[in-house]
Specification:
two-stranded antiparallel sheet
Length: about 60
């Protein structure tokens, strides 16, 4: 997971900003995957951070 975070930081994928007053942030979670070679051995582990958009409340 640290490798993925470092790669995202290095490529300026996001910018950390302050949350506006009276705004509730959307939750998030880590999703993990094992990438395998064609013959089945593990190539590498992948991780991505996804937003839980289904929890959003309009307004």
């Amino acid at each position: 997971m640290q490798v993925e975070l470092s790669a995202l930081e290095k490529t300026d994928t996001w910018k950390l900003v302050d949350l506006p007053p009276r705004v509730k942030p959307i939750g998030c979670r880590w999703v993990y995957k094992i990438k395998r070679h064609a013959y089945g051995s593990i190539e590498r582990f992948k991780a991505r951070l996804v937003a839980k958009g289904y929890n959003q409340v309009e307004g």
